[in-house]
Amino acid sequence: MDDLPRAILFDLDDTILDTTLSATRVWRETAKAFESEIGQPAEVFDPILDASRIWYWSDPKRNHEGRLDVQKSRIEVTHHGLLELGIDNYDLATRFADYYSDHRVTSMRPFPGAIETLEHFVASGVPMALITNGDAQGQRDKVAHFDLTQYFQAVLIEGELGFGKPDPRVFQQALRACDAPAEDSWCVGDNLAWEVAAPQSMGMQGIWNDWEGKTLPEDSEIIPDRVITRIAELV
């Protein structure tokens, strides 16, 4: 791309890392590992877990609480799924969630070309900040596992700051770290409200990472400045 911004603010999950895709794989593997205890094949429990995750994360209050205590959210998702099978066993739900957590970060992968894209912008002299919502330890573990700190002027995590997207303060802090004005900066992420509408309201360009290829809903009131399916398209 010829016209480089003064700074780029990147989201982490489902933008740099294949968080949702890898989560689906690990839930399925965990269901397989616990088949004998649950008394149902993974093929039966897996779709129940899918529905349980949708139930949990679709509620704004649970979503906020779960982001800041992911282990508790995993236990509740599992327990809710077990109840659908008539199994009220919180200890089993806890051990299931523990197994999932033990395999979670190592199952993740950067999207194709993601690391090379970060390297490109570093080499081009474009300062970047990473802004991610979620619990402090879980998000910091992802950053450390993939050695991402080296690419960014700042790594801003909701659970460490006490606030996160779409709060303007997190974007302001990122821009200060990059020493860049909002009007010459991009924000890139998969959440239309958090990484497009919020930064646009501050004067930034909001770039939507439509990693699922869903395309923009016809009735969307949020219009990205650009739509991509992988951040490698920014190069």
Automatic annotation (TrEMBL):
GO terms for molecular function: hydrolase activity. InterPro entries: HAD-like_hydrolase, HAD-like_sf, HAD-SF_hydro_IA, HAD_sf. Pfam families: Hydrolase (PF00702). GO terms for biological process: riboflavin biosynthetic process. Signal peptide: none annotated. SUPFAM superfamilies: HAD-like. Its cofactor is Mg(2+). Keywords: Hydrolase, Magnesium. It comes from the Bacteria. This is Putative hydrolase of the HAD superfamily.
